[in-house]
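Sequence and structure are no longer studied apart. To make this concrete, we show below a single chain and its fold as tokens.
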Amino acid sequence: MPNRVPPQPGECRDAVHWFVDSVGLYQGSPRGLILSDYSEDQEALIESAVINFKSRGVTSMVIAGDMLYKQADYLYQHAAAQTTFGRPLLSKLELDMLDSEVLIVTDLVAPETPQQLWYFYHHLLYPRALAQKPLVITTPLGLDEFFTYGAECDDLEYAGRRVTWEKAAWLMDGMLIDLHHFRMLRAENLPPMLKVEYFLYKAVVSRGLNLLPQHVMGDYMVDFALMERGNKLAIECDLLASLDNPNSRSAEATRTLVLLSDGWKLLRFTTVDLLANLMDCVDAVADVWVTGRKKSPSGRLVSGQSSSHLLELPVEDDVERQCITSGAGPVAITGGAGTGKSTCVVRRVAHLLSQGVNPERILVISHSTESVRSLRLDIESIIDKPTLQKLHFHSWNELGLKLLKENTGAIKRKPPLKVEGNPQRVIQRLLTKFKRDLDQLTLELSEELEEFTIASLISLYKANLITPKHVKERAKTSVDELVAKVYQGYEEQLQKSNKIDRDDMVTLAAQLLADNADIRARYQYQYEFVLVDEYQDANAASDLMARMLALPQDNLFIAGDEDQSIYESKGALPKILSEVSLRLPNARCYVLENNWRSHPEIVELAGRLLDGLSRRRIRKDMVPGWEMSGERAVIGPQLAESEAAEAEWVAQEIQGLLSEGRNPQDIAILYRYNRYASLVEEALFRKGIKCLTTNPDSTMVPDEVADVMAFLRLVMDPDGPKARESFERICQLRTKEIDPKLFNTIASFAEANNLSFLKAVEIYSEAVADQSCQDLEQLVRIIRTMNHENLPPAETIALLKRTQRLSEYYKAVKVPPGVNYEPMRKLSQLEEEARKFKTVSEFVRSQTSQKSADGQAEPLVYILSLHESKGKEFPVVFLTGMAEGLFPSETAGDPEEERRLCYLGMSRAKDMLYVSYPGKFNDVVLAPSRFLLETMQDSTPKPVSSAGATVQPGAASAAGATMQAQQEAALKAQQEAALRAQQEAAQRAQQEAALRAQQEAALKAQQEAALRAQQEAALKAQQEAALRAQQEAALKAQQEAALRAQQEAALKAQQEAELRAQQEAILKAQQEAALRAQQEAELRAQQEAALKAQQEAAIKAQQEAELRAQQEAILKANQEAALKAQQEAALRAQQEAALRAQQEEAARRAQQEAALRAQQEAALLAQQEAALRAQQEAAQRAQMEAAQRAEQEAALRAQQQQAYLAQQQEALMRAQQEAAIRAQQEAALLAQQQAAALKAQQDALLKAQQEAALLAQQQEAALKAQQEAVLRAQQEAELKAQQEALIKAQEEAVLRAKQEAALRAEEEEKARQAEAQARKEEEEKARQEEEQRAKAQEQPETGKKPAKGRKKSQTREEEKKDASDVRDVGIGLPPQTAAVADNAPGFAMPPAAAPAPPAVPTPTPQAVASAASEEAFWQSVNGVMGSEVKPSASVGVPPGVTAPLPQAMPQSQHPREYYEPDQPAAAPMPAFPQAQAPLPTPVPMMPMAAAPAPVPAGGLACPGCGEALVAGSRFCGECGYRLETRIIACHLCGAPQESDAKFCGECGSKMHDNKPAPAVPENSQALGAYEDYLTGQKPSQAGWVTKLKKILD
């Protein structure tokens, strides 16, 4: 447990600093903080953290706790009314909280209302955990206070149980680090980690594994790592289950791929894994580390060999694929029939298994046993059988019964737990019992209250988690109180008989999980993924159980369709599915719309039927998944004369389908009215067609066959192991009820005495004279007699019917309205079948084998009720009885549920759907069902003849057409008459109902008035009686109080006198005893003092002897240690000399260095081990010698002590006082002397030990330092050699590339120059010839001057093309007086009238000064460049003449070769003008653009902006231009470096020596960037700042 001392401000500051530094640094598991005891003085920590996040580009959000709870109240109020499936209500605040990388909630207190708790969990904690984003919470409360207050908050979910806070606390422990835990981690010098990570770390380290927490690999961080040579294992602890999506491009998936590609094995645990069984997780780590395989069921191993792939779907549907591959958290799926909801459940299981999820942690639930079996078969077809056997498949009742059997004590039951088979019988007896105590009025009101009605009410109560206490508290009438009494009595009777009913299987299990935290924890850690199909039929109890089992991760995968909810009248809640986005706002919801099952015509028909639903909450479309075929899919509606004719028509159609080659199993007949089962079965039997039918009302009617078979099993084997079960069943057929405790008593008696159950009944009945026991003994006698007679099974059944009066019993049974039950029909069939067998044993075995072989029988046609067809599909479906009153049923209370039931029946068909209805049923004319009129209004009913054949319209003969028209007219008239009769009957029924209601109301008012009068009279009588009883009781109490006071006074006086006498006697005895004790104590003290002095003297003598022996042993050990130290020093010196020689040898022989070092280390290790072994042996010998001496000295001391004691006793008898005084003096003197001697010896010994230890430490440190120095020198030499080789290779590659590029450029340039030169020469030659012809007579010698000008122009062009590459940035520029050029912007050359001879200008004083400053400028340039940039004097510019500037190259034409390939082109590199040959002074013209700023008098101008500079400035105050500075950059990474740096501080590469650059050719041209600068294209101040930032970055 962490230290619960309140956290200090320094700890809070350190925790915040750690959190700020960890966010965004590496990609890994998020870890948040909860800062308890947070005060206003610490608010600056959060403010600085937010500023830090903002500066680093991390999005953060801060919200106050009170604002969060205000938003909770507002959002829940609107979400409850506006949330729909897949659309949870969210405001901008929730969206911002989801988007922020870091969320900080300040001053948060524990939630106080259910709405605040709902928001705290669903919108704060769970979304952050699901998105794996960090969270920080500050609270003024202490940590324990925060959790204590939160546990007291009420809950909106889980039927009012306080479970949501348990989930919230679990999430906070799993994602936040509190300050107490942070303090403990710092004390152990561990990095901050979550609690479960700490538990895993401690457990793994205890196994001896070197576990590295929070290991960093580049940009990624894993929670733990194990590394040794080539074996690498990464361990991740996930809060929620992490599933790899094969199609995902998330950062988590990318990190997993990077780890796997680098050879890592990845082992993932969830918090549930670590909390459920930590040791299994540690075993998994050890197995994977040693063997590479995981044997433990905990955790999920992800390696490079196992790839996560998605199994192929039956049909390609993108929405289904998203459902199946979704990650952790709740998922909800809805869609119409045949859209693939069950397929998603099946493929989801396969996907989880492919992800490495333990199959024992997967739970699959469905509504019924049949649907569970279907899911199991589908999953079995895609996975292997051993894995299938580890999965858990259960229906709701099976799962609840399993939980209850494993925890019978928690529900006040004892094993074995039994299920009540006939709850109506128990309720009937209770109802009869409680009606006896009712008054006449209440009895008349409860006449219509039968056991079936109360059984249905109790079932609804249990489905909605309503207890008898709640029913009693909310009872408004006497009838309600009667129901509450029966409900309470029924529960007590079940508990008394150690039974439960079918509703208790789910209700009790859900309540057990919700109320018992220990049991809940056991099962919620057992199942990690819970998948539920047919969720629309779940009730409140089953929904609570599923959500309890999915705790605490909420990995709940549900699929359902509210349009197929057919059990709402029995407690199902289809709204649970539509409200999933309110109850689970973080659930991912999907709607499937493509119907892949049915023909498009059937899909369209079913869609029209759904349009009539009024309580439909989820709007969805159903689209056919395959195209329309030419064949007709919907056949009908077929009109039959009666129900028998309809059954004959169905049988005839099925016979035709079978003759066409249809498989019998492809055909199903569905019905709503139960009588159709027997009608169709008989019709098929007459056609010779085998079929399979079931009894849908088996739970509402007696099971005659099971009762008789139980009796036959007893007759076959009366003393068998299952005799008790069969005997209790047949005892229920008796009219008189038998106490269940009696059976328990007899069973205990039989078990204790090793008797069979029937034998125990016989013995117990003889011993107990009770009527119930006599009845049981008589029944046992009948069974024994039948067993001895060995009658045939048919005669045995007939005898049983007579003796047990079964006919009377079954005929007296009441069944609910609408249930088809014919007493004794099945029993008669069973008796006929029993005539084929001779003995009872053969018949019983045949019945047992027949049940087991039902699944392997030949193909049969199915006859099913609509409720039984749920979850099934058939190619051909017959939907019968589609008449008003039959379907929808007249007894149904909810027309919406009937419509959904009809939709269920239609959607079972894949290829063909037959629809039929009778014109009469039980001789009552019926109209077509409203469902037919709504969906098939365009179809004309086709009548069926009495023979069962359909009369086809459009026959060849006109007589047939006329007959058909007559029949249709008659049928129409008949239907109209029937409809009119129905309307009249309905009107009459309404009137009668209204009259009956009025009469009942009047009668009820009278009865209530009479009852009220009776109650008032009874109340008055009760009050008077109570008042009289109170008065009598008060008087009696007064008299008793007076008498009691007198008696107490007398008794008190007597007791005081006796007490006083006792006290005096006791005091006298105490005084005498004290005096006697004092005398004895004084005498004893004198004797003890003398004896003590003698003993002390003896003990001191012994101690002196022991001390002397110890000193001798210590001295000897010290001498031996000093000798060993000297030997070790000599040995170490030899080792150092040998090591130094070996190191010198290693320096000379670099190739044999590794092998030699290994030999040296082995030799050194062997020597050290030998020395250590010698030391240990010497120490052992010394210990053994010391032990022997100690034993000898102890024996000697014992002898001396005995002799000395004898002498002392003799001396004591002679003179006790003299001997004592003398012994004390001698002992004191001796002790002083010995103490002084001992102290001197100890000081000398300690000093010698310290000197020896210090000398050993110094020698060891020197040896270690020498070894480290040698090793460091070797490593540095190797590293330097590697770096130099790498740098040399890089330099050679770069130089080679530059040379090749320069060679190619030079060749291309030469080619272009040669071509241009040839073209110019031809043009010049032509011009010269023309001029020579024109001016041959006047100026014969002037033709050479243009050639000279052409030569100069050509020289300038060549110089422009041969510009050198200069890599200095921001150096100083020369002062200039005038900047003019041939084609420079702002200047133009005047037209040449007549060329004049060149004249050399005379330099002026200003020109001389300008030349001097220009010379200084070129000197600075040459110094920076390391070579002569300025040309020689022969081609230089004469003093006083300004060289023309070359034309600036456009920026878009600057080649990339102007910059270093490995350096970022952060800013344009300034180039230097190349001096040209002297030219005539040009005449300045009007500038075309603004000229550069003039140079101020007496100062320098900034080359960046032209502003005046102060002498000695290094930066321009206007634009920030840096003067006369060279920025040196790394040749590999481009990072700026110091001028004297030898290695790059960023990448570690070696810097090149700053050697002078090669000389620039005379005809080279400056860079275009510098030309741009000199021609006025100067960068702005913002541009320089941007470029400088790029360089520094």
Q: What stands out?
A: The mean pLDDT is 76. The first strand starts at residue 32 and ends at 35.
